[in-house]
Amino acid sequence: MNVRIEESWRKRLQDEFDKPYFERLVSFVRSEYGRAHVLPPGHLIFHVFDACPFESVRVVILGQDPYPNPGQYYGVCFSVPEGVAIPGSLFNMFKEIHDDLGKPIPASGNLDRWVRQGVFPLNSVLTVRAHETGSHRNMGWEIFTDAVIRKLSDERENLVFMLWGSYAKEKIALIDARKHLVLTAAHPSPRSADRGFFGCRHFSRANAFLRSKGIREIDW
């Protein structure tokens, strides 16, 4: 299968693209785009891969599903385009950064400036029908993104993995904690942030770890 994706990722994931499950996934996704309103626009499905090459990744933030509301999701987990209202989970992330590092809460929910620094916010599922959260689960995306996590764990060193909520925490089994820093907390959703996300200090802890390894920290 020939998938349009940044070269450093393509050469590492070509084996996945050639597997039968991915062929089936591509057929499903193509048919969905043909008959329904699917997010993100097709050319942005792999946007975070194109914007953050494999060797540039320093921090991995794991999510589950794309935002299902039109105009919000453009291929970067938790992020929204300039001018779009900041969703609740992202606002709580900004609030924790403010409390943790003293940084002002941004007016924009666009996280591209993080991505340019090597932050890799990855959803487990990369497409969704508009207004139908979870509509593309269990079609093959999870197999693919699990392979992405394994590749990062196996072929890189000294990464920070942020796993928020029970779903993300299930990915611990894919990560070699002897080589990487794995941080877990409650999900930043307004429904759960006060049950362990607020006060987790993941952003300062990530920077302290990166500094200790001689790696440039993130300007959150």
UniProtKB/TrEMBL annotation:
Keywords of this entry: Cytoplasm, DNA damage, DNA repair, Hydrolase
Uracil-DNA glycosylase-like domain span: 50-210
Listed GO MF terms: uracil DNA N-glycosylase activity
Top-tier EC class: hydrolase
Gene Ontology cellular component list: cytoplasm
SMART domains in the record: UDG, UreE_C
Reaction(s) catalysed (UniProt annotation): Hydrolyzes single-stranded DNA or mismatched double-stranded DNA and polynucleotides, releasing free uracil
Biological process (GO), any one: base-excision repair, AP site formation via deaminated base removal
SUPFAM superfamilies found in the cross-reference section: Uracil-DNA glycosylase-like
Enzyme Commission code: 3.2.2.27
Residues of the active site: 65
Protein's cellular compartments: Cytoplasm
InterPro entries, alphabetized: UDG_fam1 (IPR002043), Ura-DNA_Glyclase_AS (IPR018085), Uracil-DNA_glycosylase-like (IPR005122), Uracil-DNA_glycosylase-like_sf (IPR036895)
Pfam families xref list: UDG (PF03167)
Coarse class of the protein's main subcellular location: cytoplasm
Stated role: Excises uracil residues from the DNA which can arise as a result of misincorporation of dUMP residues by DNA polymerase or due to deamination of cytosine.
Listed PANTHER family: URACIL-DNA GLYCOSYLASE
Protein family according to the UniProt entry: Belongs to the uracil-DNA glycosylase (UDG) superfamily. UNG family.
Full protein name: Uracil-DNA glycosylase
